[in-house]
Amino acid sequence: MLYNKKQSYSRSVLHVRIGLAVLAFLLVLGAVGLIVEVRAITALAIPLAVIAAIDVTFAVRRRKVRRSEAAARNRSRPDTG
Fold first, then answer.
1. Transmembrane residues, as ranges (predicted)?
2. Could you tell me if 55 and 11 are in contact, meaning their C-beta atoms sit under 8 angstroms apart?
3. What is the pLDDT of residue 78?
4. What's the pTM value of the predicted model, to 2 decimals?
5. DSSP-assigned letter for residue 77
């Protein structure tokens, strides 16, 4: 699969930011579902929140890998200045 590494980094940042917003919304929705005792809302919010948390975890891991690869590339370059 061909991809642009800079674009992939941006995608990871978007996954983290949007994923955290969705996760916060789903946690609030699940809490409201528990308070109002509407089990359907809670039953829908919990698995979606788990999926969002997993997605954010993978995006953060992907960002760390990209950063460490970039740091390794920068260390291996000889100084030309």
1. 12-35, 41-60
2. no
3. 66
4. 0.72
5. S
CA angle 27, 53, 34 (to 5 degrees): 20
Q: What is the largest CA-CA distance in the chain?
A: 67
Q: How far apart are CA 36 and CA 39, in angstroms?
A: 9
For the chain, what are the domain ranges? 28-68
In whole angstroms, give the CA distance from residue 5 to residue 11.
Answer: 10
Q: Is 12 exposed, middle or buried (0-12, 13-18, 19+ CB in 10 A)?
A: buried
32, 19, 48, 28 alpha-carbon torsion, rounded to 10°: -10
Which amino acid belongs to residue 37? E
| Secondary structure (3-state) at 2 | coil
Residues with Cβ within 8 Å of 59's Cβ and at least 6 positions away in sequence, in order, are: 12, 13, 15, 16, 19
In which residue are the tokens 């579902």 written? 33
Predicted confidence at residue 1, as pLDDT, reads 47
